[in-house]
Amino acid sequence: MGWDEVAAQSVGVLSVMSGIVAVSLGGSVAVGLADEASDLDLHVYWADPCHRQKREQRACAP
Question: Where are the domains of the chain?
Answer without folding.
Answer: 3-60
